[in-house]
Amino acid sequence: MQKTVAILGGGIGGLSACFHLSKSPQVSKVVLLEGGSQYGGWLRSTRRQDGAVFEHGPRGVRPVGAVGKNTLNMVSELGLESEILPVSNNHVASKNRFLYVKGQLHKMPSGLGGVVRTVPPFSRPILQNVLREVLVSKGKEEDESVHSFMSRRLGSELTDIAIDSLCRGVFAGDCKALSMRSCFPPLFNAERARGSILLGMLLGSGGGLHVPPSDLAKRSSKESWSQWSLKKGMQMLPEALEEFLKIKKNVELHKHASVKTLNPTGCGWEIKMEDGCIIAVDHVISALPAKSLASVLPPAAQPLSELLQGISPVTVAVVNLEYEGAILPEMGFGHLVPSFEDRGLLGVVYDSVPFPQHNRPGGPTTRLTVMMGGAWFKEAFGDPDKVTKQMLLERATQAVNSHLSLAVTPKWTYVAVLKDCIPQYHLGHWKRLETMRKYISDHNLLLTLAGASFDGVSVNDVIFSGRTAAEALVGRV
């Protein structure tokens, strides 16, 4: 029997679910409901008339693993191959990543030399920590904070500096609160399967998804890409998906379409919209943030709403800066800042190094993005609704001037406050997910969860969650 499916949320997860469902003969109609004015969620790019491109959300995608291949397969199917900007592993932006510690920039150790020698800010060679790790006994807990797991296995110095910074760079989160099991499943599973991260990575820890690679995905591994973007910025991806879906006869796309309530009807759902309109469907895939879904569920599903409410996101301020000339003292991807150094400032990305194609043509310029706040937003800047863009801009330019020893003023700036943009997978997140999914199946709710709140926050993870949600409904497309 053919189904009608509503997808709530037109971010990259909702678009991905829609993309896969639109190809299935089992679906007579897919209705995508997006409350805002554009699709693509946090994938936002500013394209200036002079040709410069600035990213306000994710700025590059890693091609690794099954989820990385899956995204490249979709890019290929959308006909975007010629728009790809690849960055290879031997590019300076892939090799040089920095940490800002005790008022100085330090290149992260890379290659054999960097691992066997003592490289500041560390007080001993990293290899010592890694070799010692094999002898550390296995953890007994069902879950553990990233900080606890990593300090147990790799020592507190490496954890307090490098792992703390990494969690701020990826999740804008606090490694003392984040779950190891949910944030870094391959490392958690490596310890479980082999008793050691190192042995697990060398010998494999079993399982793993298989995604057959497209020619583009094969090219990415042959050319050893470390990341990629698109010529007109990452927003090209949701725009291409929108174009692809617009011409599908079984798809209806709606912007400015906010859901007010969801009511189960026994054989599906009745969706009441804010404008009073009512839509009846057989199944709902929610790619909304967890708290947004909680607010539209019926009172009868209160236990599910409460579980969803427990997944809290953080707010990140993103400040784009453009300077005249090539002014960077170091070339690389950028630098991260551990929380003991500056709680409000997460890191600075040197955008013009990996993607010089996004610089305005004619004469050298330097584009930087400063990331601020995250789990420390309120503490550092106060209420996200009340903070002024001027204050964030001053804080960002001051940090850039001091970290990179610059005495110049940017010629162009853009400040965005991304409210509640990264869900935090706190301790026990996996159990919460298990309980939610069990509740949905026990109560025969024709509902599938997708999006960043659940199974991974990266662009690749979110796109893959949309595909998984679609396939759970109609099988492999």
UniProtKB/TrEMBL annotation:
Pfam families: Amino_oxidase (PF01593). It catalyses: protoporphyrinogen IX + 3 O2 = protoporphyrin IX + 3 H2O2. One of its GO terms (molecular function) is oxygen-dependent protoporphyrinogen oxidase activity. It is an enzyme of class 1 (oxidoreductase). It is found in: Mitochondrion inner membrane. It comes from the Eukaryota. This is Protoporphyrinogen oxidase.
